[in-house]
């Protein structure tokens, strides 16, 4: 089981958040699916996922998506995905 906290920020203020959890084991090859599910729950576009995003999540337990990571300009400053340790 794993849980991920997704939050959308304007400045340093959280405007939307979601806790995504699954009963199966976390698999890095499925990270885009997890990200897509989180973005769907937040009702925002899914950002472009690069290898460095996955490496940052694996190393630090968090990853930040800035407006430059989206195909269309979002109406927020950043999307932050964090691992919730259980």
Describe the structure.
It is a single chain. This protein is 26% helix and 35% strand. A hairpin with a 2-residue loop joins strand 1 and strand 2. The radius of gyration is 12 Å and the shape is globular. By secondary structure, the chain is an alpha+beta fold. It has helices at 31-42, 51-60; strands spanning 2-10, 13-22, 62-65, 78-84. Strands 2-1-4-3 form a four-stranded antiparallel sheet. It contains two helices and four strands, in the order ββααββ.
Number of helices: 2
Estimated radius of gyration = 12 Å
Strand order of the largest sheet: 2-1-4-3
The structure class reads: alpha+beta
Low-confidence stretches: none
> How much of the sequence is in beta strands?
25-35%
Kindly report the average pLDDT value.
96
In short:
The chain is built from two helices and four strands, in the order ββααββ. It is of the alpha+beta class. The N and C termini lie close together (about 10 Å).
Describe the SSE topology:
Elements: E1 2-10, E2 13-22, H1 31-42, H2 51-60, E3 62-65, E4 78-84
Antiparallel strand pairs: 1-2, 1-4, 3-4
Write out key terms for the chains shown.
86 residues, alpha+beta, 4-stranded antiparallel beta sheet, 2 helices, 26% helix, globular
